[in-house]
Each structure stands twice: as structure tokens, then as C-alpha cells.
Amino acid sequence: MRIVLLGAPGSGKGTQGEKLVAHFGIPKISTGDALRAAVAAGTELGKKAKAAMDAGQLVANEIVIGIVEERLAQADAQKGAILDGFPRNTAQAEVLDGMLRRLGQPAIDKAVHLAVNDEEIIKRLLDRAQKEGRADDKEDVIRHRIKVYNDETHPLLDYYAKQGKLVTVQGVGSLDDIFQRILGVLK
Ligand code: ADP
Questions:
Q1: Does 148 sit in the ligand 1 pocket, CB within 6 Å?
Q2: Would the CB of 9 count as within 6 Å of ligand 1?
Q3: Contact by Cβ (8 Å): 98, 105
């Protein structure tokens, strides 16, 4: 099973993704986590990505595409994967489809959209800012990330809808309720 998680920053992709990992026993590929790890480790890739991340902008396509391709080629991803934070624009989605073909893997089964209203998103991200102190969880950067999401990532809903793969789940409520909704639409 290959699933793409779609949703605004703070919509719960990371949290629900972990639950899907536990449930299906397939790995989660999070470009955000991979990039933060690269920044923390001070690698060349991390140095290239940092400025864009701190500003709430997208990191260059070739960087994230390289991360995903390397990860999808590993043994544990052969039976499936949960993609969190990738693809984030139409170009990445098209590359992903080609990449899976090239790797000899089945296509994406479903794109799960976690729908959460803007007010709730801002509230959650400001809350996370206090608890985790992520460099990009500052109010002006948060607003910019939401704009980038609306401009560049939201059109992916249409991309997957046209392929008949889009399922939408209300992302507000208890974590378990949301997870049950996700399992429901994946059946
Ligand atoms: P959130 O969903 O909360 O915005 P992520 O952890 O998914 O956070 O991503 C954090 C940052 O990492 C993004 O704002 C962006 O700079 C970078 N990033 C993550 N995934 C991608 C991607 N697929 N393409 C480009 N940049 C990305």
C-alpha cells in the first residue's frame, strides 16, 4: 500500500502517519523530518535546505526528490510506504509517479487529505511553537507556510482527484477518531 498524506502544515500528517506505520507495518517517509535531520547534522544537503525552511518556503525540488528516491529504493519500502510532506507541488507529484514506475513499484493507491480549517491550523502551530520550538513555527513563517500550501500544495487535491485516488477526512477531533476515519476511507 502506497499512501500520500495531504494537508496543511499542522493538519496532523505526522501524527496520523505514525499510526498508519504501526497499523500497516510499512515505513513513513517524511521529507520534513529528513530535512530537519540533515540540518541538525550539518550536512551539505542540510546547509542547502536551511534558508528555505526557516523562511517557510519550499526546498528545491531536486533536493527532496533525491531524498525520496533514495528512501523508496530501500528494502523496507518495497511493500509500501506512507508519504508525509511529499509531494508538495504538481512537479513533485509527476516525478513521484515516474519514480515508482522506474523503481518497479506499484503506483500510489490513495491520497488522504486531512481537512482542517485555517483558524485551527494557526492555533495548533502556535501551540507547537511553544512546546517544540521548531525554527519555522513563528507566526509570520506559519502564515507564509499556509500560503505556500494553498498556492502550491492544495492543487494536488485536484491532481489526485483526477486519478480517482483522493479521499478526504475531517482532521478535527480526537486522534483515534481521525485515525478510524482514515482506516474507513482506505478500505
Ligand atoms: P509542515 O507540514 O508543518 O509545514 P514539514 O515538516 O512537512 O512541515 O516541512 C517543513 C519544511 O521542510 C517546509 O516548510 C519546507 O521548507 C521543507 N519541505 C518539506 N517537504 C518538502 C517538499 N516535499 N518540497 C519542498 N520542501 C519541503
A1: no
A2: yes
A3: no
Residue 174 C-alpha to ligand 1 middle, in angstroms?
24
> pLDDT tens, position by position, for the chain (187 residues)?
999 999 999 999 999 999 999 999 999 999 999 999 999 999 999 999 999 999 999 999 999 999 999 999 999 999 999 999 999 999 999 999 999 999 999 999 999 999 999 999 999 999 988 888 888 888 899 999 999 999 999 999 999 999 999 999 999 999 999 999 999 999 9
- Residue spans of the domains in the chain: they are 2-30+78-186
C-alpha 53 to ligand 1 mean position (Å): 7
Residue minimizing CA distance to atom 10 of ligand 1: 32
Nearest to 2 by CA among 73, 94, 80: 80
Ligand 1 proximity of 58 Cβ (cutoff 6 Å): yes
What is the homologous superfamily of the domain 2-30+78-186 according to CATH?
A: P-loop containing nucleotide triphosphate hydrolases (3.40.50.300)
Nearest to residue 9, comparing CAs of 132, 153, 169?
153
CA end-to-end distance (rounded Å), the chain? 11
Please tell me the distance between residue 58's alpha carbon and the centre of ligand 1 in angstroms: 6
